[in-house]
Amino acid sequence: MGVTDLLIELLSAPSVTPDDAGLMEFVERYLPDFEAMRVDEGGVKNLFLWKRFGEGEHLCFAGHLDVVPPGDGWESDPFVPLVKEGAIYARGAQDMKSGAAAFLEAIRRTETFGGTLSVLLTSDEEGPAKYGTRIVLERLEERGMLPDYAIVAEPTCEERFGDAIKIGRRGSINGVLRLYGRQGHAAYPEKADNPIHRIAPLLPKIAGIDLDEGDEHFAPSKLVITDIRSGMEVTNVTPGELKLMFNVRNSTATTLESVERYIREVFDGLNYELELDQSAAPFVTDPDTRIVKLLDEAIAEETGLCPKHSTAGGTSDARFFGAHGVKVVEFGVRNDTIHAPNERVAIDEVEGLYRVFRSLIGKF
Question: What are the boundaries of each domain within the chain?
Fold first, then answer.
């Protein structure tokens, strides 16, 4: 079975989060020479496979086999892969069964390696991610089996295959602010305390504001308001409470504590409550790290491109590797149709990704 055939096999399984649709068992059979550890918890299935070839470093390939629901607007069955004009159409084609197929096939064909090769797969990346990669890495740390390096095969390329890798990700801080006033009659505003009027002059200080200046790896951490609601949808009653929600995709220069301090300064003297939650922490892998340099070389040899080093986009399971001190990068196919109807991946990109991973393994 080649990488394209393997991808079609993976895409044929309707593995909508957290259902793996039998793929963990399939992968375990596909790599029979690897030792296996299953970590199934909270309705999520996880698989860790490893093989010690020698005394050297431990390189892990990681990803997810779950996909988002297909939704409407498909021109073909999203779980019956359609090969058309050099592409494969199916849910998960780009995000990220193509990446999984590429590294599984590359590993299966590896006969010699200087250290340990491993695979970490989860069925809970597109969901809450509470019982997926995070808990597998906790178990590996308990056993002293954490990898030295990891590659998460998320789709990272933008315009052309090979044009971008992720060397880090921004964190994500979510905020809910409740501003309290006093409800009243619109005809007597002096007898009320309208929270909408209270917040109006403060909005320029929070809406779209940069909380830091960014650096060579990260764009500035921007406070983005995602929702404001207040009142009873009538014209003669002023509200007594306002709820504002916001998100900060933060660099390493901004923390939950610094966001809290900033909000406290802006809303000083007002009656409010603030809830903050850090759903993902930022991380960055030094571009001079061995894994980044070798991946750059492998991509350049395959595509002729020098990939840019990006930290843009949302979060991924790479954040869990970063939290454990594992030097992690992300590289995969283009991401122009992820989560969309008629998601598709170019076959030549899948084959190219397989060759890049084969080359990378050889360089180690």
Answer: 3-169+282-363, 172-280
Say what the pLDDT of residue 314 is: 82
Catalytic residues: 66, 125
Bridge partners (DSSP) of residue 150 are: 60, 328
**CATH (residue range 172-280):** 3.30.70.360
β-bridge mates for residue 230, sequence order: 242
pLDDT at 15: 98
pLDDT (0 to 100) of residue 113: 96
Tokens of 101: 């197929």
Distances (CA, A) of 331 to 1, 47, 94, 98, 344: 23, 21, 12, 11, 17
Structure tokens at 87: 């592409």
State the pLDDT at residue 364: 87
Q: Where are the alpha helices (DSSP H) in 183-229?
A: 195-199, 203-206
Q: Which stretches of the chain score pLDDT less than 70?
A: none
**Helix, coil or strand: residue 259:** helix
Q: What CATH number should be reported for the domain whose range is 3-169+282-363?
A: 3.40.630.10
